[in-house]
Amino acid sequence: MATKAGEILETARQLVDGDRARTHGDKMENHACIAALWNAYMRLQLQRRGVDVPGAIFGSLDVATMMLLLKVARTVSGGEHNLDNYVDAAGYAAVAGEIAEHWHAWRK
Fold first, then answer.
1. How many whole angstroms separate alpha carbon 106 and alpha carbon 65?
2. Residue 12 contacts residue 94 (beta carbons within 8 Å)
3. What is the b/e burial string over 74-91, where b = at least 16 CB atoms within 10 angstroms of the residue's CB?
4. Residues 98 and 27: beta-carbon distance below 8 Å
5. Per-residue pLDDT tens for 76-102?
6. Do residues 96 and 28 touch, judged by C-beta distance below 8 A?
7. What is the pTM of this model?
C-alpha cells in the first residue's frame, strides 16, 4: 500500500519527468535562463542603489533552491491547505539535487 508521502513523490516525479519537461523544456536550460534573468534584474536594482556586483549573483542551483523555498513559504503563510505546494516542493528539491549532481560531476 502506497503512503501519502510516496504518492506526493510519485506525482512530483511524473510532473518533473513528464508534463513540466514538455511545457518548460530542459531543466538545466530553464533554470540557467531564469538565473540569467534574475541576475540581470538584481544587477539593475543594485546599480540603482549604487552597488556594483561583479559576476553572477544567482546560478541554476540557486533558482531551484529558491523556488523550493517559495513553496515552503506558501505552506506556512496561511490560507487553505494545498497539497500541490508539497508536490511542487518535492519536484524542486529533486531538480535542485539533479543540478547539484550535474555541477559536482562537471567540477571533477
1. 19
2. yes
3. beeeeeeeeeebbbbbbb
4. yes
5. 987 889 999 999 999 999 999 999 999
6. no
7. 0.87
